[in-house]
Amino acid sequence: MTEWGNEDLDVDFSRIYEIAKRDDLVEIEEFRPYKNTKRFTENLINDLCQSTEKYELRKTIQELERYIKESDRLEEFFYSDVSHYIFELGVSEKKNLHENVKLLLMYILKDENNVDKNIKQIALKIYDYINLNKVQNENIKNILQESVVSVKGKLHDEIKNIEREYITILGIFASIVLSFVGGITFTTSVLQNIDKVSMYRLVLMIDFIGFILVNVMYILISFILEINDINKRRYNKYIKCINRVLLAVACLIILSWFFDIIGIQKYISRCFFWLK
């Protein structure tokens, strides 16, 4: 029975090299030792991916015993072959594979089972390859998830910035339209009713409409500044000053209306004609 070691590994590949020279450097896939090892690897993975209820541990041990007795085989497995077969398995099959390979390893490592040393080496190598593949898949999955989260965050920020730009453009356009239409309507209304109402009522209405128009414009501009993360506090003092002026004008108009200053002026003019 061949011992598992570096010496056998060198002899095995030396034999492959001699075969390659005789066959004019034929592809490695055509070498019988490689084909036998690859076929055994596939069969072993297929056995291990069965459900735990159907998995026959003793059958796997027998397959390993037959394999180490073969002459046309490699002393090492190719990780590329193992990973290739694992990639083709489904989720449930991969789960069965990891559970069954643990059962296999636990069995062969127990001294009371008297498992051949070469079989232990093969089982350890297969177990190592399968778990290495699992770790690599988990790392790839984590990297992909982190990349997806990062890309989603960047896309969200880009979309948010685009939405802000659209809203800003629409807001500016709406402000211009509102100012223009409001100004035209306001001017037209004043000119049409200048001779139909009292001076107090007309001026008070002008002041009230101006108050509404200015504050609506301020609310709209504040919204545009807020969605663009611009500090609007420094602009608050301007709207406060304007509102105070409009409020003061309204108070003066109401007081004048209450005391009828224009009427008093006309009365004084009639009584004291020399003041005309």
Uncertain parts: 1-11
Number of strands: 0
> What is the domain tally?
2
Fraction of helical residues: over 70%
Please identify the structural class as seen in this structure: mainly alpha
Strand content: under 5%
Total count of helical runs of at least 4 residues: 9
Q: Give a short account of the largest sheet.
A: none
Rg computed from alpha carbons, rounded to a whole number of angstroms: 46 Å
Global morphology: rod-shaped
Name the helix and strand elements from N-terminus to C-terminus, one letter apiece. HHHHHHHHH
Mean pLDDT: 76
Distance, first to last CA: 138 Å
Brief characterization of the structure:
With 276 residues, this protein is mostly helical.
General description of the model:
- This protein is mainly α and 276 residues long.
- It has 2 domains: 144 residues, no CATH class; 123 residues, no CATH class.
- It is rod-shaped.
- The N and C termini lie far apart (138 Å).
- The N terminus is likely disordered.
Characteristics:
276 residues; mainly alpha; 9 helices; 0% strand; rod-shaped
How is this fold's topology laid out?
Layout: H1 6-22, H2 32-48, H3 57-69, H4 79-87, H5 91-109, H6 117-192, H7 199-227, H8 233-259, H9 261-271
